[in-house]
Amino acid sequence: MWRSLVARFVRDEEAAGSNPVTPTDLRGPRWTGGGLSSSPGPTVVGVVIDREGRGLRVGGPDDAELLGRMLHEFNAEFGQTEPPADLMGRLAGPQLASGEVAVVFGPGDPPVGFAQLRYRSSLYEPGPDACLEELWVRPGARGTGLGRALLEGAMDLAREHGATRIDLNTSVADEAARALYAKCGFTNEELGAGGPSMLYYERDL
Length: 205
Prior knowledge:
By secondary structure, this protein is α+β, with helices and mostly antiparallel strands. It has a single domain, classed as Gcn5-related N-acetyltransferase (GNAT) (Aminopeptidase), CATH 3.40.630. Helix content is 25%, strand content 22%. Strands 1-9-8-7-6-5-4 form a seven-stranded mixed sheet, with helices on both faces. Strand 6 and strand 7 form a beta hairpin. The longest helix is centred in the C-terminal third of the chain and has 15 residues.
């Protein structure tokens, strides 16, 4: 079973503009100061510069193997070595190509961190819901604000994709992550402040 995650955070986003990024645009959105441009980027993977001048970039299908390796490193930090990196890379390729999955990489080669999104259709809004499935910064780069930059970059990308809501799961024991999410406007209180705490359940099938 995947890592046990017991708290669910939800953040509603303002409605996106009339020109959200389509799946075919995901390789090349460019940062324009306050968000991502919906115009195509360069032929290589798009470069994103965040508000603090950090070099972030939006990944594409050519980054599937890299994403698989980084997901494996992330999982290994928590003692989980399955599935193998090559399998995750093979699975990531078609999902990155279709736009179902999107990823923002941190600076460096290999990148020092990443934020991975998944979009799903909604029965409540015309646009998709976004789920932040993974957010990871290598140990040596923690405490530098990169995690927040990746999170905000992922939220901007989700807005450009047309999402008006984003959620995520984390452990109650991960106090650093919970503090970051709260600072960025996420809540785990149903219907807002004062509501009952939301929980996340899972099981194998």
